[in-house]
Design goal:
Largest sheet: 7 strands, mixed
Number of helices: 8
Number of strands: 29
Strand order of the largest sheet: 1-19-21-22-18-14-17
Structural class: alpha/beta
Radius of gyration: 31 Å
Shape: elongated
Bound molecules: adenosine monophosphate, magnesium ion
Helix content: 10-25%
Distance between the termini: 39 Å
Length: 417
């Protein structure tokens, strides 16, 4: 099988996967999903002119010659409305968010005043001394100064970030139409794998890919379905995959996609006549199997990650995550790709023309730039303990090498810890 370039493998997957149906979800369930529609405001935000600080609502003409004294009419908290207008020589004490009382055009911040009596709550009949006059209109937020009817506050295809959800809530929207989260089944394979907390027998290892892939799936904004451990048996795998395709939108397997005699995922997909088997031009994570099975409503992609933990991680990040994001309508499919400063020499491994995805630690240095160095420990595909330190994958083209201080292209796996 010829090597498939990374970009080509990714493009093939993105083209093959179905798009999720659009449903209306409550805003609290929409985080990280993509809006299916433009949203045009019908509301005015703020809906009325209101006070931007705690102070006294006044007529600017009254305070222009400060210091002056005004008669206090009472206090207006947020959520109330002053029962009478500000007349010449008077002021309402107002709290942030209170509607600007009629007749007032300016709010003098409490720090520029002193009241008599100096009680914590203002009452009618108090006297306030204005020490200094602010500019006319100070302390007032005009109606519609945030959003006006007809403003497009969200464009189809934009990701629902926390502040965008706030914008929607602020115009009274409660549900938003999005391609819904895929239900992603995670099925690990291998007769050597132990999930129970019991001592290992000869030849056994503790299963570790499952929890990693489930976490990666959840981090990608998908719903996780734990499908447990499958045995190294093609018929058993055919049954499990067929069942999974009836219950999930996507199935991700780990292990069993190499050249081994007992590799069940490859064998099962082959038996089902749906196997696409790629030798991806990267190191680690060369073998990758995928298929489209028949689901009740649409095709169900099956992604077969290699079993070695580091290979599983890299395959997921480079191939599966972009495909999942395509299913939910994301336009940015890849992790952020940036140039970083190499702090240590780096070179592509091997001579077979594959791109090396070197696991690197990343940190910002005093020069304000992102610096990377290979993770401590080794870079072999079973050495997940070393790769667990990685913040990024340095993408080293075949034959390339980098000296300290060179710019090296990296894919960020995370920016914060
Ligand atoms: P495979 O791709 O099935 O040939 O597995 C490659 C290597 O990864 C073998 O050494 C497996 O024991 C190991 N491996 C496969 N699946 C898992 C898993 N779920 N957890 C830990 N190691 C695994
Ligand atoms: Mg195996």
């Amino acid at each position: 099988v010829a090597l498939t370039p990374i970009a080509e493998a990714q493009a093939a997957l993105v083209a093959a996967v179905p798009r999720m149906p659009v449903v209306a979800v409550p805003l609290d369930d929409a985080r990280g999903l993509v809006s299916a529609r433009d949203v045009v405001a019908e509301q005015t935000v703020p809906p009325f002119a209101n006070c931007s600080l705690d102070g006294y609502a006044v007529r600017h003409d009254d305070v222009a010659g400060a210091p002056v004294e005004l008669r206090v009419l009472g206090m207006v908290p947020a959520g109330s409305v002053a029962p009478s207008p500000v007349e010449p020589g008077t002021a309402w004490k107002v709290m942030t968010g209170a509607p600007l009382p009629e007749g007032a055009d300016t709010v003098v911040m409490v720090e520029l005043t002193s009241a008599t009596p100096a009680a914590p709550l203002a009452s009618a009949g108090d006297v306030v001394r204005i020490h200094e006059a602010p500019a006319r209109g100070a302390g007032v937020r005009a109606a519609g100064s945030d959003v006006k009817p007809g403003d497009r506050v969200l464009t189809a295809g934009e990701v629902l970030t926390a502040p965008r959800l706030a914008v929607l809530a602020g115009i009274g929207v409660r549900r938003i139409e999005v391609p819904r989260r895929p239900r992603v089944g995670v099925l690990v394979t291998g007769d050597e794998l132990v999930t129970d907390p019991r001592p290992l027998r000869a030849g056994e290892i503790y299963e570790s890919n499952g929890v990693m892939v489930r976490a990666l799936v959840a981090d990608s904004g998908c719903e996780v379905v734990d499908l447990g451990v499958g045995r190294d048996d093609a018929d058993d795998m055919v049954e499990r995959l067929t069942k999974a395709a009836a219950a999930c939108d996507v199935v991700i397997t780990t292990g069993g996609v190499s050249m081994g005699d007992t590799d069940p995922v490859k064998a099962a997909l082959d038996q089902l006549g749906r196997l696409h088997w790629l030798q991806v031009s990267m190191r680690p994570a060369k073998p990758f199997a995928y298929a489209l099975l028949d689901g009740p409503e649409r095709a169900v992609p099956v992604f077969g990650l290699p079993g070695n933990p580091v290979s599983s991680l890299v395959s997921f990040e480079v191939l599966v995550r972009p495909a999942l994001r395509a299913m939910t309508g994301h336009r940015e499919l890849d992790r952020p790709r940036v140039l970083a400063v190499a702090d240590e020499p780096m070179r592509a491994l091997g001579t077979d023309g594959r791109t090396t995805m070197l696991r690197v630690e990343a940190r910002y240095a005093d020069d304000g730039r992102l610096h990377v160095q290979p993770v401590g420990g080794a870079q072999e595909s079973h050495q997940i303990a070393a790769s667990a330190r990685a913040d990024a994958l340095a993408e080293l083209a075949p034959g390339s090498s980098y000296a300290p201080g060179d710019d090296v292209p990296v894919r960020m796996l995370r920016w914060d810890h």
